[in-house]
Design goal:
disordered C terminus, six-stranded mixed β-sheet, mainly beta
Length: 339
Amino acid sequence: MKNRHIYILMLLALIFNGSCKRQDFKDGCYATARIFVEVNWDNSGINPDKSAESYNVVHRVSLRFFPKDGSEPFERYLETSVYSGFIELPVGEYSIMAMNESVKDVYWNERLKFTDINDYNKIAATVVSDNPSLYRFYTPTQGELFMKEAHKLASWSMNDFSVTPNMVTRTHADASTPEHQDVTIKVNMRRLTYDTRILVTVKNLKSAHTIQGALRGFSPKVYLASAESEDMPSTQFFKLRTFAYDEGSTLNGMAETTFQSFGKLPESAEAEYTMGLDVILIDGSSYVPGGPYDYNVTDVVRPQNDTLITIAVSIELPERDGDENITVGDWEDEEHIDL
């Protein structure tokens, strides 16, 4: 008798599930709403179309939902296209944060770490700390913080978004024309990482093998929902990667590099920005000028609010010729680190 009752209950469940797929959507068989997501990258600092450039690759877009009832946050993804697609959401009230990749992706390993990922107001990205002992030219001050270069990061946020039972019904009512659904989340990605360009005009550039330095004062941390940096001045090492001689000259020219960071401290901070340079000459010696190449660049950095911050200085080096008995391999690992 007991087995017969179980058989009847199983049969009724099968009948109910089958009828649910055939009956009108108004009866509430669907548990989630089908939401269309559009992503605009114009102000993100990232162009996903440049897939050949590793720093622009976007593997997916994640949307992290923070339920207002305090339940555990969850993520939905756009992977087939990073410009648009559908996601399914249960009924509820949410805050939303979107970003390239996800806070849990290995893509960020050794570059960024994410904290407070379950708190919409506190979720943040912090650049992984650098080790100053790797840079023999630099002597840290007590309590000085160091950071590596960041990967490109962009985010978007919305504090209030509702999924209602009516939306569940309506978004499944006409599956044949999903492109006409009127429930859309429009994501306008904003940049969180900024380009910093160091430009050095060098007299006797031919004497230089390596010009490297440290920029002090930029922030290593940014909040993903507000896009505000943290008041936490840190130091970033860099190497000038491009040497270019003046037209018609084999002596003088410019050296430069560009790197990614979270940029300046918040506007409310009493920010000071400084930069030091170190030079290794072509003969393998470390150049010690009469006065150190140390600059206060606060008045240069503060007014710049564009996507590119440029810091330009000038130096003069002594004339040197390379020693053919000294090769780069003899001293490069000892004298500098490729940043």
